[in-house]
Amino acid sequence: MKLVVLPGTNREGSKSLRVGHALATRYGAMEGVDAELLDLRGLPAGLLDSGSYASKPRGFAAFADAVLGADGLHVVTPEYNGGMPGVLKLFIDHLPFPEAFERRPVCFTGVAAGRFGALRPVEQLQAVFGYRNALQYPDRVFLAGVHNALDDAGWPTDPLVGGLLADQVAGFVTFIRAVSTVR
Description:
Layout: E1 2-7, H1 15-28, E2 34-37, H2 60-68, E3 72-78, H3 86-94, E4 105-111, H4 119-131, E5 135-136, E6 141-143, H5 159-179
Parallel strand pairs: 1-2, 1-3, 3-4, 4-5, 4-6
């Protein structure tokens, strides 16, 4: 099984990237799971050009191919001004329609400094991925107060939250296997 972990920001030193690395490591340690971290910091700058919708800039194909080749996508989103980061929405908008998300299993983890753990951006993403007919795993996890809540590897220090995230990882793999016949 090929699984892509997508931290939803291109910000250097982001907590989403740290959590994404921790998730990719956890998935990669599972039997039969090949996990890849898709780092938006490497997106080509030409993606902002209005002509890029018709003709993708060099370097974007590797990002699109990673999503298209994935059996499942785990999105880790921070909250920027009450919503998902613009770079994440730009990335989603440039992926092929409808095949990028049509019947593709997707899972969400929110990461935020505030006490709601990026609930709003996760709900926004659920609407976008619902529109794109993705198969959404229902167990979302929200990491609140993230600046003081992660260990050196990017995993939650709170045992309850760490347990929820571990359950999300195991459950998402089971979900992908269960819905694989739908694709």
